[in-house]
């Protein structure tokens, strides 16, 4: 009974957060911040939306490198700019979008599907898509974060094993005064879908 109430409370809290994020995103869109933005398409930086995890000669996932390079462009922009993740299935491991940014309102527009790597040796901390010290970030679009959680849930037993691997959260915003997530979908969370930590 207590577990059911806790789940209902968590769902209600997430819905309230989502409603606040949607309101902020709509207000920003109505001011024209997203429509006039310079576009940094991850494909132009080498990302491949073919559903495969490919590593470069340094052993780094190619899509991760491309996402971060596109992010640096949008983050360091003097005017409105956004990273676009187009249609396709982009497999990535843990990726850090670091700030602070010169751009006061950086945007990531998710049109396709971002798929989590199932290799947990590529996750150095329990986050998958992490924004750190990025005030005013927006994650928008009709795309999907696909965590592939069901593949891993059975193999991780943190209830009985103190040394278990702590599974990463799908999207985390840490050390930011404000952030927006709007209309994106998250399915099969590796652990939990979203966390905002000021």
What does this structure look like?
The protein has three helices and 13 strands, in the order H-E-H-E-E-E-E-E-E-E-E-H-E-E-E-E. It has helices spanning 2-30, 62-75, 149-153, and strands at 38-41, 81-85, 89-92, 95-98, 107-110, 113-116, 127-132, 137-140, 144-146, 169-174, 179-182, 185-187, 194-197. Helix 2 links the parallel strand 1 and strand 2. The protein is globular, with a radius of gyration of 17 Å. The two termini are 31 Å apart.
Task: Please indicate the percent range of residues in DSSP E strands (runs of 2 or more).
Answer: 25-35%
Low-confidence stretches: 30-34, 192-198
- Rounded mean pLDDT is 77
Order of helices and strands: HEHEEEEEEEEHEEEE
Q: For the largest beta sheet, what order do the strands appear in spatially? A: 1-2-5-8-11
Helix content: 10-25%
Structural class: alpha/beta
Total number of beta strands: 13
How widely separated are the two ends?
Answer: 31 Å
Main pleated-sheet profile: 5 strands, parallel
Radius of gyration: 17 Å
Number of helices: 3
Instruction: Report the principal-axis shape.
Output: globular
